[in-house]
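Repro case for the chain-ordering regression, as requested:
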Amino acid sequence: MSRRVLYIEDNPDNMTLVQRAIEAIGLTFIGAENGTRGLEIAFSDTPDLILLDINLPDIDGYEVARRLRNSGRAELKYVPIVAVTANALRGDAEKALEAGCDVYMSKPINIRELWARVEALLSDTKS
Amino acid sequence: MTFNSSFSYFKQLECSGCHEYFDPRQLQTYCPICQSPLIALYDLETARKQLDREQISRRRQAMWRWHELLPVFDPQNVITLGEGDTPLLTLPHLGAKLGLRHLMLKDESMNPTGSFKARGLSAAISKAKELGVEKVIIPTAGNAGGAMAAYASRAGLKAHIFMPKDTPLANVLESRIAGATVILIDGLISEAAGMAGVKAREEGWFDVSTFKEPYRLEGKKVMGYELTEALGWSLPDVIVYPTGGGTGLVGIWKAIGELEALGWLENRHKPRMIAVQAEGCAPVVRAIESNAPFCDFWVGAETIASGLRVPKSFADQLILKTIRESGGTAVAVSDAAILQAQKELAIMEGVFAAPEGAATLAALITLKERQLIHPDEQILLLNTGTGLKYLEQLH
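-- result from build under test --
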């Protein structure tokens, strides 16, 4: 079974673009349109990697990352999380890393970079 | 709209990532497929047959004398304030002190609005006007905002600018006096870029952020044409360039490739491109040192050289490619070294450089220590702007 990437993102254009990119490299894509739904999927499906938009309509990406890391479930404590944001305020990157994200990427997402980061993070977590 | 093919050999746009082609007669931003910068391509084969380098040299001095190799089709759309053809100075006193026999500086402070940003914005605003744009928006660390405001004003376009709140006052005032709306934000240029992108999408402003439209690169590349022409159509051994967004570095390298394709170079020995960054924001240096294919976002960027406070360039892969292809490298310098170099340039050579430009002189010491430059090499520094915009830092 191919490895699964969960993308938590409320912007449909970004969702479509990233879905195509993830599927193009043979991974299974799962989309969630807000933080609450993203957490539900993360708990039920335990993805291999999470792409996390920071500016979400319900709970922000920092809180999503914190809840995943503090869930008490080992697979969510260590799942790679890539924060993705169009930037809002000073310190976004610092806050994302403090909340438990592994990598910070700014939008627009360069697809070649996304592929490289996803592949590197997934190869690091191969058991 | 009319297209005058004899005025420009501009042919098409190519994505630097996936190499898809795009129509230059349509308004373009960056690649919609892979989100990489677009690069302008010219019909250099025809240009090689029809264009004569001496013909360009005989024209009145200014950037647009290279119009065949710039992207505007109709001369009526060229928006110019007399940018380009900045002096190439020798630095005999500093050269003697550092033991470098052929040290030079291209002084971009002589451009309209006092910086090299005039070149890129002249090209971008001209092309935007040609393609029917009426309002333009930009995130800026400073000088690009002032330049955009001036060129937009001359073109009759509305201008909106996002700047970090600690941007030098001169940049804020020069933008406002040219009629631009300036919003000061509590963040860096990366945050300003995010806000500009959102406003552009929601309200239909055309975003002229670095590399998020294809034509600022074209204006900047003319630095490469000019310095080659000034050196008798030869290239220096080393170009030391302050690197924030990286348009100038990539642009000069692009120009060298185009001159080679035109058969206009007297020597084929290409320069090593050396990127200079501040220690407080050095994503390119870190990527070069770790042999990474792209830059990591630099967390907590801080430096007095506001133009170097770019946590991650949208064109990071192009910057790294340029440095690697040229056999160059990247070095970081401290703010203290930048201020010291700024003083030395003024005291010993009479050049009041912007901190970003002074950083290139500061880098020479590191480069010498690491034996990455040699006494007999022809070394060219780029001063990107005037120190007069940064007077607060001297108090």
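Ordering looks correct now. Chain B has three domains: 10-77, 88-111+218-394, 117-207.
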